[in-house]
Design brief:
Layout lengths: L4 H12 L11 E5 L14 H11 L6 E5 L10 H7 L2 H8 L2 E4 L5 E6 L6 E6 H5 L3 E5 L5 E4 L11 H19 L15 E4 L7
Parallel strand pairs: 1-2, 1-6, 2-3
Antiparallel strand pairs: 4-5, 7-8
Length: 202
C-alpha cells in the first residue's frame, strides 16, 4: 500500500541492507529528472519526492548536492531557471543543500575503448571526484522504439556527439548480432529511443 514518499524511501534503503547504509562522511549527489522549464506531473520528478529524499538523507549526512544540466535538443532551457520555477532553489536554501548546474561546472575527459575506437566524453568532476553516492530520480514514462535514418544527425556538443556515435555503433551490433555490423547508407539497423511525451523530453 502507498504510504507516501518518506516511508517508501526508507523501505527502499532498508531493502538494500548494508549497501544502503549512509555514513556521516558520505557526499551524496541527487539528480532529479527535470525535463521541462516548469513542473509537469508524471514527466518530472516532483518537489514532494525530492523533499522526502533529502529529508531522509539529512538524518545521516549534510553533504548533499542536487545537480542537473541545461537542456539541449529542440527545446533548450536553463536548468537554473528550472530550479527556481519548481521551487527547488528555495527548498535547497532552506534545507542547507547545495545546487549545481553541471553545464557550468568543471569537467574532465574520460576515455574508454571496448571493441570501438577510443571515445572521449566530458564528465563533471562533481560526480567523478566529489561524490560517494549518486542517486538518480527517474520518472516512469512510456517510450517508443522506432528505426530512423540518423546518417546526417550531428550533436553540437562534442561529448554528446561522441556518446551518440558510441551508442549507435553498440546498438547496430546488438540488433544485427554481429561484432562489426556494417552501416548502410540509410542508417538501417539503428535503434533510437524517443520519449512519447515529446521528442526532447528525455
Amino acid at each position: 500500500l502507498w504510504a507516501g514518499y518518506g516511508a517508501s524511501i526508507a523501505r527502499g534503503f532498508d531493502f538494500l541492507g548494508p549497501a544502503g547504509t549512509i555514513r556521516t562522511s558520505d557526499r551524496i549527489a541527487i539528480k532529479p529528472n527535470l525535463t521541462f522549464p516548469t513542473y509537469r506531473p508524471g514527466v518530472m520528478a516532483s518537489l514532494d519526492a525530492l523533499t522526502a529524499l533529502v529529508t531522509y538523507l539529512k538524518n545521516f549526512t549534510d553533504k548533499i548536492t542536487i545537480c542537473e544540466s541545461d537542456s539541449g535538443g529542440y527545446n533548450p532551457f536553463s536548468m537554473d531557471e528550472v530550479f527556481r520555477n519548481t521551487g527547488i532553489t528555495e527548498f535547497a536554501n532552506r534545507m542547507g543543500v547545495r545546487i549545481v548546474n553541471m553545464s557550468h561546472s568543471p569537467s574532465r575527459l574520460i576515455r574508454f575503448r571496448r571493441h570501438l575506437p577510443t571515445i572521449s566524453v566530458p564528465l563533471p568532476t562533481l560526480l567523478l571526484d566529489e561524490t560517494d553516492r549518486f542517486i538518480t530520480m527517474p520518472v516512469p514514462k512510456v517510450h517508443l522504439n522506432t528505426n530512423v535514418s540518423a546518417e546526417k544527425s550531428v550533436a553540437s556538443d562534442p561529448g554528446t556527439r561522441a556518446a551518440i556515435e558510441a551508442t549507435s555503433v553498440l546498438q547496430r551490433r546488438h540488433l544485427s548480432g554481429q561484432q562489426d555490423a556494417p552501416k548502410d547508407n540509410r542508417g538501417r539497423g539503428w535503434e533510437i529511443r524517443i520519449d512519447s511525451q515529446r521528442s526532447n523530453a528525455g
